[in-house]
């Protein structure tokens, strides 16, 4: 076969092959409609792809900022922690008890507990909130501003004793031993609500050298180991001065330490010293945050007692009254355990004559 | 007259550039077959060739404002060929279907039918770039330079590819 013939035959064969294919030529309008559809789609993609990219960028960067985190990883970690806390809160009976007892929102109470606020503090906040008509969050906000309880109660126009009186009967009905600030567990013999404590101090009952039921001397200071059995090693937090209510971070003995065995002046710095008449013992008022007990002899003849309740100070008894023997130095003598589940034995609050 | 050699009137291209749909329709009706057949020889599938041809004309309509003076069909064939190359980049084999029966049995004699079958088998054994060179060079009778320009290769490559394809067909015919 000649090459020239091959070229011609190849051309003819290719033409035949190409022409043998079935051609379906769409009308121009259909073609243009398809083109418009493609163009619309590409325009949408052109518009929305940068928009989607911006939204994605904002979602990745700004959302954690809105959520209070610095980046996505921190936000995720905090979210996981919140979930873990929520699980813990859901199974914690303390929050439920507090919510039922003070008619608060369970979520609020659980949130406060999850933030590290003690149940006693939550109880006090809830009680103040109930008494003042404010919400628990508002009381929490006031506490968050650094206001002490005395200031808060004064600003809200509440009576301290009213608050404490409302808190007092809650204690025996607390099966889980939620330590209500300023309230000692009222056992059969050592029942000492704030009112009773006030009345005792007011009537000149001695507060020094209390003894437990077993006859052991009990130091009235909160460091005597007679506080909450939940926190036996917790150093006794002391209330501030009456004019300077303790802050939450310092902790009141009644709200943080769970040892409401001292005078209830930590609730708002209420001075509890009252001249009790001639011959009566004098009570000391914790006024110095430095831990130095201040003794106010109420009567010349009465033995002054000192209760070192200053902040962080050594709770040593200091003889300050003329002629009055100092109270017993703080000793780690354990108090007899409470038979009930309550970690709130406070023999020091039950002064025995 | 070969389809590739049909030069359009400059007014047609100007009207197309201005967005005249009638000018575009005239161009579409006259050159669609050439584009389709080129795509069909490269891809071997009428459906895919139809898609390629329609995309080619849509690109022409979309970029009508940038058209320049000169022959329009090589531009269309270049667009169609490049679309074929890129659209089915991963596909290795593009087998042309068996030659269908002619409408008129007397149209093709048995010898030609045998030859067509051998050409078909030869083309099926070639890669798509060589098939595009053969289609442009033999079907549309473009020059080596135009074919090289469309396929993006050197004119020597076009010549060598065409020579190899002829040698294969010749060997097929000699064997038979």
Description:
The complex is a heterodimer of chains A (353) and B (176). With 353 residues, chain A is mainly alpha-helical. Chain A has 10 helices and no strands. Chain A has helices at 3-20, 28-66, 72-91, 93-102, 106-114, 119-132, 136-144, 149-156, 160-167, 194-202. In chain A, 41% of the residues are buried. Chain B is mostly helical and 176 residues long. Chain B has helices spanning 10-17, 21-43, 46-62, 73-87, 110-124, 128-139, 144-151, 155-175. The longest helix of chain B has 23 residues, at 21-43. In chain B, 39% of the residues are buried. The model of chain B is unreliable at 1-6 (pLDDT under 50). Chain A binds chain B through residues 1, 3, 6-7, 9-26, 28, 31-32, 34-35, 38-39, and chain B through 21, 24-25, 28-29, 32-33, 36-38, 40-41, 46, 49-50, 54, 57-58, 61-62, 96-97, 99-100, 102, 108, 112, 115-116, 119-120, 123, 134-135, 138-139, 141, 166, 169-170, 173.
TL;DR?
The complex is a heterodimer of chains A (353) and B (176). Chain A is mainly α.
State the main characteristics.
heterodimer; A: 353 residues; mainly alpha; 10 helices; 0% strand; rod-shaped; disordered C terminus; B: 176 residues; Rna Polymerase Sigma Factor, Chain: A; elongated
Question: What is the fold's blueprint, element by element?
Answer:
The complex is a heterodimer of chains A (about 350) and B (about 180).
Chain A: H1 3-20, H2 28-66, H3 72-91, H4 93-102, H5 106-114, H6 119-132, H7 136-144, H8 149-156, H9 160-167, H10 194-202
Helix pairs in contact in A: 3-5, 4-5, 4-6, 6-7
Chain B: H1 10-17, H2 21-43, H3 46-62, H4 73-87, H5 110-124, H6 128-139, H7 144-151, H8 155-175
Helix pairs in contact in B: 1-2, 2-3, 2-4, 2-6, 3-4, 4-7, 5-8, 6-7, 6-8, 7-8
Q: What is the number of beta strands of chain A?
A: 0
Q: Oligomeric status of the shown chains?
A: heterodimer
What helical percentage do the residues of chain A reach? 40-55%
Task: Note poorly predicted spans of chain A.
Answer: 168-353
CATH architecture of chain B: Orthogonal Bundle
Number of helix segments of chain A?
A: 10
Give the integer mean of the pLDDT values of chain A. Answer: 59
The total tally of domains of chain B equals 1
